[in-house]
Amino acid sequence: MKRSPCIVLLLLVAGVAVFASSYVLAQRLCAKHSASSTDDLAWLRQEFQLSATELTRIRELHDGYLPKCGELCQQMAVKKHELEAALTGATNVTAEAGQKLTELAALRVQCQRQMLGHFVEVSQAMPPAQGRRYLAEMQRLTLGFHEQIEQSMSNAADQPHGHH
Amino acid sequence: MNKQPLNSDADGLASLLRDARATPSLPPRFQENVWRRIEGGAVPNLPSDAGGWLEVVVGWVWRPRRAFALAAVLVLAGVGLGWSQGEQLARHEAQARYLAAVAPNSVR
To answer: Is A81 on the interface with B (CB under 8 A)?
Structure first.
């Protein structure tokens, strides 16, 4: 029996609509359900299957770390403003700007060191296998960006420069 | 009345007409072709292109029970995929929230 192309098309559209509406609805419901948690540590709890005791210990570490991190961030923000001020209108890297750069870099190193120290502490509050995974993941997420830049720059440096 | 000569004439005419009718010869492999066409008509048209396949699929789905089953499969597949995607998105957002709290952008 030959059916009208319109009916075939209608069936196809109906099938796609049924699938797409189910997909979108489920995705939104799931996202809404999961987004109801505003806890910073929700990811840790889910991803590393932490017990209530481990989570409590990690929350203490987290709450202790945040003010220290915030203080260093504040110092870095101030230093950045000072650097911007030193560079405003300058056509060269002045001694003052160089000094501010050095101070900013020192603050950044201090902040990174503190951050990595916190990650180590948190990892030690987890079961050993999960702790190793957490530490590796956090290093990848926080230091990986620099690795990518360094890798891309070292690749670029390997390319022979053209002589003009 | 003499009917005998009339009957004799009619028989002669019929015989003459029979002999005069041309009986065309059948084309080669006529019988075989006829059977092939009969067999071809017994099974549904085999799809030869995309439109044909579509026609077969629609024909299969045309029954109410199969249509409901297909709709149920589509809903289940959509819900499953959507939920899985939603979970991934939620996990990504939760990870970003944690990272934003412990690792400011300036040190990443």
So the answer is: no
Q: Is the ipTM of this complex over 0.85?
A: no
d(CA A62, CA A49): 17
Rounded Cα gap, residues A24 and A160, in angstroms: 50
Are A86 and A97 spatial neighbours (Cβ–Cβ below 8 Å)? yes
Name the residue among B86, B97, B98 with its Cβ closest to that of A31.
B86
**pTM across the whole model:** 0.61
Please name the member of A7, A25, A46 whose beta carbon is closest to the beta carbon of B91. Answer: A46
Pick left, alpha or beta for residue A49 (phi over 0 → left; psi -120 to 50 → alpha; otherwise beta).
left
Q: How close A162 comes to chain B (CA, Å)?
A: 33
Q: What is the pLDDT along chain B (108 residues), one digit of tens a residue?
A: 455 566 777 888 888 887 777 777 778 888 888 888 887 765 555 455 666 777 777 778 778 888 889 899 999 999 999 999 998 888 888 888 898 888 877 666
Strand, coil or helix: B7: helix
